[in-house]
Amino acid sequence: MNNVLELKGRFNQKANTSRPGAPKLPIDSTVTSNDLIKLQHDLVQMKEYWESNKLFEGALISVYYNKLAAKSNRVTKLLAEGSSLPNSTIVGAKFAKEEKKHIITHHVSMNAIEDSIIFLNKAITLLKNEFRGTISTETFNEPKTFTSINFSQYDIAKTNFQKIIVDTHYVEKFDVEQSDFNSNQNAIITIYDTGEDTQELLKRLGIEVYNTNILNDTTILLDENYLQLLMQKAPYLVAMAVEDMSELAPSNFKTTADESIIHIPSPESEPTIGVIDTLFDERVYFAEWVESVDMIDPNIEVDSEDYKHGTAVSSIIVDGPSLNPHLDDGCGRFKVRHFGIATGKGFSSFTIIRSIKEIIANNKDIRVWNLSLGSNDEINNNFISAEAAVLDQIQYENDIIFIVAGTNKNIDDEDKKIGSPADSINSIVVNSVDANHNPANYARNGIVLSFFNKPDISYYGGASQDFIGVCEPLGKAYVSGTSYAAPWIARKMAYLINIIGFSKEIAKAMLIDAAIGWEPNTDLSSIALKGYGVVPIKINDIINSEEDEIKFVVSGISEKYDTFNYDFPVPVHKDKHPYIAKATLCYFPKCSRNQGVDYTNTELDIYFGRLNDNGKLISINNNQQSIEGLENYLTEEDARKLFRKWDNVKYISEEIKENARPRKAYENRMWGMSVKTKERLNNRDGEGIRFGVVVTLKEMNGVNRIEEFIQQCSFKGWLVNEIDVENKIDIYETANEELKFD
What we know:
The chain has about 750 residues and is of the alpha+beta class. The protein folds into 4 domains: about 30-175, no CATH class; about 185-245, no CATH class; about 250-540, CATH 3.40.50.200; about 545-730, Sandwich (Jelly Rolls), CATH 2.60.120.380. It is about 25% helix and about 25% strand. Helix 9 (about 385-395) links the parallel strand 19 (about 370) and strand 20.
């Protein structure tokens, strides 16, 4: 086995100097004056509607697109506020019910609506007079088309006319999106951002909201009566709504408690994992390893059932290998700081969210958190749950990571989507498989927002007759559920972060990369249940590689559009590179729940491969999204499908073939890596974002060339650190040794 290598060096930064060209229509398109007239009529209707509904300044207008609209395909002139792009006024995004088409909601001024009506009128006149009311792609995209037109005659600039034509091509209609949420109990409501104070805005409707019921600027807890009043008077305000009370997802138990005593030594310097769950019973044999904090409201009555789930989860984290020798991962034992925030009957989402915020704020020393609580309700197709959004925000702002159970269904139920907070994008979400890597019969389905791979990975959570041994208040029991798969992954993450010293970005990439192996799962139905794959049991199988492989990790920080290094000395043999390559990228983006389906603010797009004689990087997956001149020839849907556009996990690889041949080594013989940063909004949220990449090079002929690679890396200025596990353990123990002074 070869050790994983950690390469430390300098990434270069380069701003994006390319400028957008003239607006263009896609191939075989036609725009008519009737298309413009229809949109103009829609905006006139919108103007009249909002002039009669003056609850707040401006208007909420939804743009219904005829496709899944890339950022470059969205309106650029219609609804624009002066010289500002309409992109800056987006307050929500969802998919149409019948097809995968964007519906994007803007908060705009009345002036923006009036200006758009006027611009459309001018464009209609020009289109009728100069093009007989119809313009095709062939005519529109020809630069000479507009040279003979006197645009001043129509009081409209050429660029504005072109933008309006392109806007019209992609837009089906303008309308007011009305929420139809109906509930007979308390609900967490998110309203569109209108620039008004939420309490003051709702007070105008007769709705009193107290500070204790406010989650953030636009999200509040409403009781049944106020909810009905809001839906009656201003349903157009409601962007998202979910019932507050959630029933816990079921767990499957084989109740065969064993009261025999298991002996365990006292804890020393082991890392601590945070657990947020139901209550912990301090009478169990490993109680010395657990610091327990009861956060249940004292007015809530609890019973013995409320201690089973949380105690079982913590038993796996502390002493899982002793309870399940066949799953001994080699990670040792871990201490636990256990926070009991829910009973076994159900929970208030609003209370859970506030509790998690408080816990993380007061426990900054813990970097890995296990959250095996989940809702029995299915996630929404158009927005992230409030609980998951808070987890994503916390992980963006803090150097921590959550391991979240993928939630369960009853084995007799039909297919069921995962429940919150398993829709958290930044977390590692874990589903269960049996010993043969088949999805457990209680596993629920991703995908999240019709795109994001959730669950991320799978592990052994007990299935069929192969249950997981845990310790419950009455002794050893045998259980199954994603709740008992997640703690095993929390153990591995804590080992990689606390013992080995990896960043959370690298640690997450290592687990996902190990789960994928060399044969990525491409079956969508399987991905929805298993994620990227099943993580190996032994930690050594994650932090080591085969003798014919070179596995290395690199970390970087994105400061500009392009973060790159073109000095990776992949070994050359007989003027060729005898390697097949793969790479896994992970990062933790800022997310915006109020943006609906367009949830992640930043994309990092990875390119890795040889450098040709012109100095251009040839990515191993033939990614051409950012190649100048080719960007607009790939649809948003294809970019997401082929290159995981906007996903915060990227896996790229070369196809493994039986007759694979070594690649040509170009003149400079180096390989390069480029990570390009793209923003969904205009807030520069990607500046300073950290990323981690795991790269594996497999020698086609089985030759071990790692020493040559290490030597060449040193020549190129890389600081090469071999990940020696025994050495890392010694360093950790020495650093955490308790010194006693006389």
